[in-house]
UniProtKB/TrEMBL annotation:
UniProt record similarity statement: Belongs to the vitamin-B12 independent methionine synthase family.
NCBIfam families cross-referenced by the UniProt entry: met_syn_B12ind (TIGR01371), PRK05222.1 (NF003556)
Gene3D superfamilies registered for this protein in UniProt: 3.20.20.210
Residues annotated as binding 5-methyltetrahydropteroyltri-L-glutamate: R20, E21, L22, K23, K114, R529, C530, W575, E619
Ranges where the Cobalamin-independent methionine synthase MetE N-terminal domain occurs: 8-323
UniProt remark on cofactor binding: Binds 1 zinc ion per subunit.
Source organism of this protein record: Gordonia rubripertincta
UniProt cross-references to InterPro entries, sorted A to Z: Cbl-indep_Met_Synth_N, Cobalamin-indep_Met_synthase, Met_Synth_C/arc, UROD/MetE-like_sf
Protein name: 5-methyltetrahydropteroyltriglutamate--homocysteine methyltransferase
BP term (GO), one: methylation
Active-site annotation: H708 (proton donor)
Length: 769
């Protein structure tokens, strides 16, 4: 291939829009307020603006097809003709696509799970025998055409076949058209790998015809531990895809880690370029691979997933290590900037120092451009940018907010006191006596639907139209509504509904020292759902109680127990942009100490049940087996630090969701929560068997229905779920709850679903009696 070499690029870009335009448009489309052509217009405008900005900033190769209406893995399933048959009856292609993403009233969506160790969620392709792969390249071809019409050096990006299959799950197929029976089959999706090779060859030929000189094939899964069979498949598939035929030059891109044994395997194929994550990988190890002497190495030296300004001197040194050892060198980000906010521009409330320490997507693009110039024309040609980077680093290192010696001293004294509570069985006796709950207690995970009254109140407080007292009064009235609703429904353990929380992490971050919130730092979490992670820059301290007033207010309205709701230390860490100047474990413990202080205050206020949510426990799990034990030890330690300050008669709940729990199952037991509510609706109770397998004997609430879909579960379905849960867990330690918080759902659908949940529980209680 004789494609011209590029020097300056990024791995991929966000698509939700600098002001979440795509979110708004897509939700309007779903609600029937705008039609397809209006939605397409917004999307095309965002693509055009993104590409223009990247090319104006100085990239000489611009990634395209990183746009998505929902998720890039779902796009790939569509590209490869791998959508399950249950969606085939939906005529409109976009509605079919959204049905796979979200479900409809009569068809279940694909399962959703975390994208590697990030807080982005992808849809898990289902591979069954009924699928025969076929190529549907319309999306990538039309985006390429759009970009070329703009005269951009467009580089289409697609997910590679190995990653696609490694992220898929095998199912037995659509015996049941609703997808409820889409159980795992024992066939490994990877056994289908050779069927994909001709499709990629076909795709590359078509992209070449359409004018692409480079194509990027993303294979982040190659940064995980691979079996010899998978490594053999990598070699076989990429030798075939990179064979000599009319095709564009190929860049295989890996991220979120280090390729290790996959690096020489890829390097021995004829792909022209490798995109490498140089934030994770050791440049000396890369420089030592002889086959790279003929490759174009696209070095991801600017971290695509944190928000700290790059140490330009260090990055340039990394590039220098590679320079003589590889064929040619381009500068890039370590991964797509999907994981960071668009730009620092709207952040005018940050103080000068803080701001100087940061780089969001636009600033990272500028860093890539600066490094590329330094590499090609010498550091002196970009002297000012290097000086600013060094000055920012010095200002950060010297800032007094980074160290709070009182907190450090208290932390070590609490840690030396030990983190164990009384034996779980004895705690259960004390708690049962105190709470007096029926068998199979019913509860919810915390949040209730975000009503328009909540949104209005928040907007009016922001604009100054109402003061804090009025805002609090309105939130109290929301709490009162939610308590009334739960009493009417007949739930056993109530929640206050979390109306005052904009977000389960940000709410705490705003009240803790060591964090600051961004004004517009949104990143996509899944589909149209965006989050605004706070920035954790210094030592964490809790100046005053954060939740006690709200919970005691809720408790004052009812004689049923109301759960105190807290977010756990690992989740606060995972859903923030975290300081990179000390080990994560240390930061986790500082957060845990603040949460521990809160549990003690809740207990003193008379709260009998406290839930400490850790939905992100699995998310931070390192991708390599060799790093997992150490992580789990400190993550569990931080959770126990946060929950071991209370009496044995106080019941600690935790909540976990969004993931395959297999690998962290032992850690779930080590958390030693009295009750664990856990997502199980979408993964069909598999988790209970896993918990039994490790001898877990505390109480558990496997989610009996999926809240990620608008579908209302029938009473019969929930009865079935409960019966199957009872096969795995005795009634004495089974709780009944949805699989996650309800804040993204509509009020009517929540009421109906919970009615069915309570009715189903009553029916199953009767069977037990
Ligand atoms: N308590 C939170 C809620 O109900 C938990 C959210 C989550 O698990 N992501 O919203
Ligand atoms: Zn959840």
């Amino acid at each position: 291939m004789t494609a011209e070499l590029f020097t300056t690029t990024i791995t991929g870009a966000a698509r939700i829009g600098p002001n979440r335009e795509l979110k708004r448009a897509t939700e309007s489309y779903w609600a029937g307020r705008i039609d397809r052509s209006e939605l397409d217009k917004v999307a095309a405008g965002l693509r055009r603006d993104t590409w223009t900005a990247l090319s104006m900033a100085g990239l000489d190769s611009v990634p395209v097809n990183t746009f998505s209406y929902y998720d890039q893995v779902l796009d790939t399933a569509e590209l490869l003709g791998a959508l399950p048959k249950r969606y085939a009856g939906i005529d409109d292609d976009l509605d079919r696509y959204f049905a796979a993403a979200r479900g409809t009233s009569n068809v279940a969506p694909l399962e959703m799970t975390k994208w590697f160790d990030t807080n982005y969620h992808y849809l898990v392709p289902e591979i069954s025998d009924e699928i025969s792969f076929t190529l549907h390249p319309q999306k990538v071809l039309s985006e390429l055409e759009e970009a070329r019409a703009q005269r951009l050096p467009a580089r289409p990006v697609v997910i590679g076949p190995i990653t696609f299959l490694l992220l898929s799950k095998a199912t037995v197929g659509a015996a049941d058209p609703t997808g409820d029976e889409a159980q795992r089959s024992s066939t490994n999706p990877m056994s289908r790998i050779d069927e994909l090779t001709p499709l990629y060859v076909d795709l590359l030929g078509k992209l070449k015809e359409a004018g692409a000189s480079w194509v990027q094939i993303d294979e982040p899964a190659l940064c995980t531990d691979l079996s010899p069979e998978v490594l053999a498949a990598v070699s076989r598939v990429y030798k075939a895809i990179a064979a000599d035929y009319s095709r564009p030059a190929i860049m295989v891109t890996s991220y979120f880690g280090d390729l290790r044994e996959a690096l020489p395997v890829l390097a021995k194929t004829s792909v022209e370029a490798l995109g490498l994550d140089l934030v994770s990988a050791d440049p000396d190890a890369i420089a030592a691979v002889p086959e790279l002497r003929t490759k174009h190495v696209v070095a991801g030296v600017v971290d695509g997933r944190n928000i700290w300004r790059t140490d330009l001197d260090k990055a340039l040194a990394t590039l220098g290590t590679l320079l003589g050892s590889v064929g040619s060198l381009a500068v890039s980000t370590s991964c797509s900037t999907l994981h960071v906010p668009y730009s620092l521009d709207p952040e005018d409330e940050l103080d000068e120092e803080l701001r100087s320490w940061l780089a969001f997507a636009a600033e990272k693009v500028a860093e890539v451009v600066t490094l590329s110039r330094a590499l090609r024309h010498g550091r002196d040609t970009v002297r000012d940018a290097f000086a600013a980077s060094a000055a920012a680093r010095a200002s950060r290192e010297a800032d007094p907010r980074l160290r709070n010696n009182d907190i450090r001293a208290r932390l070590s004294s609490v840690l030396s006191g030990g983190l164990t509570r009384g034996p779980a069985a004895e705690r259960l006796i004390e708690q049962t006596e105190r709470l007096g709950l029926p068998a199979l207690p019913t509860t919810t995970i915390g949040s209730y639907p975000q009503t328009s009254a909540i949104r209005v109140a928040r907007a009016q407080r922001r604009s100054g139209e109402i003061d804090n007292a009025e805002y609090e009064r309105r939130m109290q009235s929301e709490i009162a509504n939610v308590i009334t609703l739960q009493e009417e429904l007949g739930l056993d353990v109530l929640v206050h509904g979390e109306p005052e929380r904009n977000d389960m992490v940000q709410y705490f971050a705003e009240q803790l020292d060591g964090f600051f919130a961004t004004a517009n730092g949104w990143v996509q979490s899944y589909g149209t759902r965006c989050v605004r992670p706070p920035i954790l820059y210094g030592d964490v301290a809790r100046p005053t109680p954060m939740t006690v007033d709200w919970i005691t207010y809720a408790q004052s309205l009812t004689s049923k127990p109301v759960k105190g709701m807290l977010t756990g230390p690992v989740t606060i860490l995972a859903w923030s942009f975290v300081r990179d100047d000390q080990p994560l474990a240390e930061t986790a413990n500082q957060i845990a100490l603040a949460i521990r202080d809160e549990t003690v205050d809740l207990q003193s206020a008379g709260v009998a049940i406290i839930q400490v949510d850790e939905p992100a426990l699995r998310e931070l799990l390192p991708l390599r087996a060799s790093d997992k034990t150490e992580y789990l030890a400190w993550a569990v330690g931080a959770f126990r630090l946060s929950t071991s300050g209370v009496a044995d008669s106080t019941q600690i709940h935790t909540h976990l969701c969004y993931s395959e729990f297999g690998e962290v199952i032992g850690a779930i037991a080590d958390l030693d929560a009295d009750v664990t509510s856990i997502e199980a609706a979408r993964s069909h109770m598999e988790v209970l068997e896993d918990l039994n397998g490790i001898g877990f004997s505390n109480s558990v609430g496997p989610g009996v229905y999926d809240i990620h879909s608008p579908r209302v579960p029938s009473t019969g379905e929930i009865i079935e779920s409960l019966r199957s849960a009872l096969e795995a867990v005795p009634a004495q330690r089974l709780w009944v709850n949805p699989d996650c918080g309800l804040k993204t759902r509509g009020q009517a659908e929540v009421k109906e679903s919970l009615q069915n949940l309570v009715a189903a529980t009553a029916a199953v209680r009767a069977e037990l009696a």
